[in-house]
């Protein structure tokens, strides 16, 4: 799977609310009521990531969860990252 072009990424981001491209990664911050709710979300993301065999970087800060998606083997964002971001949005 090859790295997406800047225009392909921009087009994909139009359908991914609040996701941004930062340092060759798709990134989004989610905010929850409390730590327990944030951890519940992380567990759901982890289960989805295992199912599809593609794992985001996850940063947890009390009630905030920051997800970052990139395909390291390709050195940037691929369709695989976009697809996982869409699936996370559908959760």
Outline the structure in words:
The chain is α+β, with helices and mostly antiparallel strands and 91 residues long. The chain has a single domain (6-90), classed as Transcriptional coactivator/pterin dehydratase (Gyrase A, domain 2), CATH 3.30.1360. Helices cover 42% and strands 23% of the residues. The chain is built from three helices and four strands; from the N terminus they run αββαββα. It has helices spanning 6-13, 35-52, 79-90; strands at 20-22, 25-31, 57-61, 64-69. A four-stranded antiparallel sheet has the order 1-2-4-3. The longest helix has 18 residues, at 35-52. The two termini are 25 Å apart. The relative contact order is 0.25. The model has no long low-confidence stretch (mean pLDDT 96).
Key features?
Gyrase A, domain 2
Topology record:
Layout: H1 6-13, E1 20-22, E2 25-31, H2 35-52, E3 57-61, E4 64-69, H3 79-90
Antiparallel strand pairs: 1-2, 2-4, 3-4
Portion of residues in beta strands equals 15-25%
Question: Spatial order of the strands in the main sheet?
Answer: 1-2-4-3
Helix-strand sequence? HEEHEEH
Overall average residue pLDDT? 96
CATH level-1 class: Alpha Beta
CATH topology: Gyrase A, domain 2
Low confidence ranges: none
C-alpha-based Rg, rounded: 13 Å
Strand count, sense and barrel status of the largest sheet are: 4 strands, antiparallel
Supply the CATH architecture. 2-Layer Sandwich
User: What's the overall geometry?
Assistant: globular
Tell me roughly what share of residues is in helical segments: 40-55%
Number of strands: 4
CATH superfamily grouping? Transcriptional coactivator/pterin dehydratase
């Amino acid at each position: 799977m090859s790295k997406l072009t800047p225009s392909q990424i921009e087009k994909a981001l139009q359908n991914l609310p609040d996701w941004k491209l930062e340092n060759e990664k798709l990134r989004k911050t989610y905010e929850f009521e409390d730590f327990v709710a944030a951890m519940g979300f992380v567990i759901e993301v982890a289960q989805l990531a295992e199912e599809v065999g593609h794992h985001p970087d996850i940063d947890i800060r009390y009630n905030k969860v920051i997800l970052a998606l990139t395909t390291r083997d390709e050195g940037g964002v691929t369709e695989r990252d976009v697809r996982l971001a869409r699936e996370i949005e559908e959760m």
